[in-house]
Give the backbone structure.
Amino acid sequence: MIGAGNIAHEHLPAWLALGVDVVVYSHAGASELVAEFAGSTAGTLEELLGSCDAVDIVTPTPSHADLALRALEAARPVVCEKPLARTSTEAKRVIEASEQAGLPLYPGHVVRFFADYAAMHDAVAAGTIGEVAVQRFSRTGSAPSAGWFHDDAQSGGVLLDQSLHDLDFARWNAGEVATAYAQESAADGVRSVQVLLSHVAGAISFVHGTWARPGTTFRTTFDVAGPGGVLQHDSAQHPAVDTDRGDEPVAEKGRGLLPAMPDESPFRTELGEFLTGLRGGPAPRVSARDGLAAICIAEAAQRSLVTGRAEPVETVEVLE
């Protein structure tokens, strides 16, 4: 594992729970991390790459592509926290390298592994509400404390760091995205972005992301509507996926979302699925090209913030 920051505190215990031996390399914090959980440390990146079977990248966004390429050059499969790279151009380079080397490359889109979101997607895929017509996703939490997050040149801002989860999920549910229109506001320590997606198949998705003041309660919501009903969730009010068919009472059952995680950690679920894939089992529910597609949607939304109009989303069917 490369990196020892906040997200490493989710990945390391998940790998350990899966019975994996973990070696950590980081410019800072590796010794403290393994002292808190378990594992060992490497003194250099070369030492790490020479002693592992696969690499998990949990470093800041600007370093993802270079580290992934280093790992692939060393013939190591790669798991990389989202986004797969800072830009779609970098992501393409990494994907091309993995495909040329014949090595797995998995992006860490953990929301696909949240139990409530996965149940909602399964219901959509099963045709429970018919073809998706309109989707709404929101994600609100405390703004990150590390300074690099607030430099858009490094992090991509709210769009690429936080809303990427919901942009990815919108595409997973309703298919490829044709255009993205975005607006952003920032005042009094709160930064919000709203994105309107037009899907190729005709669906419309609304994505709202907010970095709020420190201490703000983490909250997510979704509403997914089709001719057969609505799938709804609000982590603050209804901690379960409710299917509202219009003529049936909505079930009152619940469980929480991150950060409470009363059930299995979604990171353990995610990394467990990646581990199965690394061992030759079924491919995980998220692919490297899904990671690229999410970045392309975010980049279209970023262009929209500048132009003030809906921007086309680059296709990822063929890599140049």
User: Anything to note?
Assistant: The first helix runs from residue 8 to 17. The radius of gyration is 19 Å.
